[in-house]
Amino acid sequence: MLGSVFETCQRGLPVEIREETFSVSNNIISRMVLGRRYFDKEEGNKNKIRLEELKEMFEELFVLNGVFNIEDFIPWLGWLDLQGYVGRMKKLSERLDVFLEEVVEEHDRRRKGVENYVAKDMMDVLLKQADDPQLNLSRIKVKAFTLDIIAGGTETSATLVEWGLSELLKKPEMLERATKELDRVVGRERWVEEKDMGGLEYVQWIVKETMRLHPVAPLLVPHLSTQRCRIAGYDIPANTRVFVNVWSIGRDDQSWENPNEFRPERFKGSTVDVMGRDYELLPFGSGRRMCPGHSLGHKVVEIALANLIHGFQWKLPDGQSPKDLHMGEIFGLSASRSYPLVAMARPRLPSHLYNFNSSQP
Ligand code: HEM
């Protein structure tokens, strides 16, 4: 990501932040789950799918997961598909399946005939489990599980880093404070590493504040009550579909002072965290069904944002002032920016640090 941003600014071009953040989070998750990068920015690599195409499919997936589909509530209207969502879902599912089939087949070929094959990635592990008939893990379940993890781990982190940088571009004094902290803790001779994060208090506050104002799943994922219960005076019968509005909870003036303002310092001396224990801040949900990737996702967002701030001086393109930067969001399962963030970057570290070896699989 850093090498790609560097190349773009060397050419004097504005950086499309989302392209970069999507690419980095997707590469991380794809190498963990599928064993290699399956996606490429460039066209024409026959072993890889165009990243742009995947991004477009995931955006559609998140929009369709969040839409209000009339037939979910009035099932007898189902055959009409009044809003056309079901048709879109089927089309998308076919497109995603082509990719997933290819991945499963590649993994199957690799394992075939190899005695005591040692799993190299998550899909290998799943396919090995699927060999056991007692587990009832069909091929379709392996594909569904894989899709959940890739989609859950890509869109979310990418969206948050884009929001974080947007907020900082709106408040240049905060960007400056974060840059100074990075210079003090990391210095200008290297990139930020995971072990540095403990000392980067202000950057950590920025990430928490971004998650408070821009929870990527504003209504979490729909839940179902298993038993009858009463919350804040409301009776909720068993088997009720429940939405938890973490977007509103994060902006509730009973819990937060000046809730609509982006103010990372509010976390100074506060023990409120994002791990599901503090109900006023629930970007990953809470309890049994909270995000299983929360620890990874949190780290990816922190390290990606920290390095973007550390490695580059950022400003909005000519003619755009911070107050003009539009902060509207799209409503879907995830709340991303309605207008992608575009910004100008200038390298601020010694030039040899931008020489990246991109030979990783
Ligand atoms: C900063 C990044 C991330 C954020 C903000 C985030 C947020 C969330 C939220 C809010 C939920 C729903 C929880 C609920 O309804 O209570 C969720 C579920 C889920 N997330 Fe994440 N997530 C992130 C990263 C990841 C990563 C990296 C992975 C995979 C490695 C992942 C995989 C999943 C899966 C599979 C679920 C569904 C869990 C279930 O239904 O039991 N997420 N995530």
TrEMBL record:
Binding-site residues, heme: C291
**Presence of the UniProt keyword DNA damage in the record:** no
Q: Which GO terms describe its molecular function?
A: heme binding; iron ion binding; monooxygenase activity; oxidoreductase activity, acting on paired donors, with incorporation or reduction of molecular oxygen
Q: Which PROSITE patterns match?
A: CYTOCHROME_P450 (PS00086)
Give the Gene3D superfamilies listed for this entry: Cytochrome P450
- Keywords, ordered alphabetically: Heme, Iron, Metal-binding, Monooxygenase, Oxidoreductase
Q: Name one Pfam family in it.
A: p450
Kindly list the cofactors needed. Answer: heme
Entry-linked InterPro entries: Cyt_P450, Cyt_P450_CS, Cyt_P450_E_grp-I, Cyt_P450_sf
A biological process (GO) annotation for this entry?
Answer: secondary metabolite biosynthetic process
On the tree of life, the source organism's domain of life is Eukaryota
The UniProt similarity line reads:
Belongs to the cytochrome P450 family.
Instruction: State the PANTHER family in the record.
Output: CYTOCHROME P450 98A9, OS09G0441700 PROTEIN
What is this protein called in UniProt?
Cytochrome P450
What organism is recorded for this protein? Answer: Picea sitchensis (Sitka spruce)
